[in-house]
Amino acid sequence: MVWVMSSSAPEVAFAAPPPDCENADYNVEVTQGTQQGRHQGVRAEVWFGRGSDDCNRISTLGVLSATGNGFVEWGWVLGYSSCEEDGDAYYTRPRTFTWWRPDNGASRCHVLAGSQEGTWHTLALADGNSDTVWLAKRDGTVVDSLDVNFDRGTIVTNAERDCTCDSAYAHYRSLDFQVAGSNTWYAWTDPDLYYDSDPDYHWHYISDTEHEVLRD
Fold this sequence. Notes:
The protein is mainly beta and 216 residues long. The protein has one domain (31-215): Jelly Rolls (Sandwich). The protein contains no helices and 16 strands. Strands 1, 2, 4, 5, 6, 7, 11 and 14 form an eight-stranded antiparallel sheet that branches. Strands 3, 8, 9, 10, 12, 13, 15 and 16 form an eight-stranded antiparallel sheet that branches. Strand 8 (119-126) and strand 9 form a beta hairpin. The chain starts with 11 loop residues before the first strand and ends with a strand. Residues 1-16 have low confidence and may be disordered.
C-alpha cells in the first residue's frame, strides 16, 4: 500500500549510524494477563516519540502466536529501520511500519506513512473474523493486512531500542483487546509484565488501561 505523503512527512537521510550504536536488542513488553493465547486483537492510543540521534527505537502493538514462532506487529520506528524494503533509511520523525512472521515461516515488513513527532494516534491490530489475516488500522482506517497462519495469540505492547544511548520511553492509553470468537473490544483489566530485557527502562503502571515505559 502506498500512502500519499504530506508536507509533515518524516525527514530521511542515508548515513552511518552514530558511533556508539550497540546493535543490541532491548525490549519491554506488557500484556493483558487474562485470556493469554486467545487474544484476537489489541488497540490503544500510542504516543509517537521525538527523535534525537536515535540508533533504532520502536513502539508497537503486537500479537505473539501460541507456539511463539509467529507474530504480527504494528507501530513506529525512529532512527534506522530494519525493514529490508527500506534500504537502511534513517528517520528523524516517527515512521510507521508493519512486521509479521507466520508460524515457522519467514518474516516480512512494510514501511508505511510518517507522522509528526509528539502526537497521539489510535493503532489497532485484529483478526476479527478468524481468517488469519490481521488488519492494521491507524485512527480507524485500514493501512495494511498481514497474512499469516494463526488467528489468535498473546497481545503485547512493545517498547524497544537497540542502544542504551537511545530513549526507550513509550506511552499507551485506552488499551483494549479482543478474544477469539468475538469482535467486541474490551478494556484491559489485568495488565502484566510479559518480558523485560532493558537495563534502564521499565514498565510503569498508571491504570489497567494505561502505562508508560520509563527510565528508573
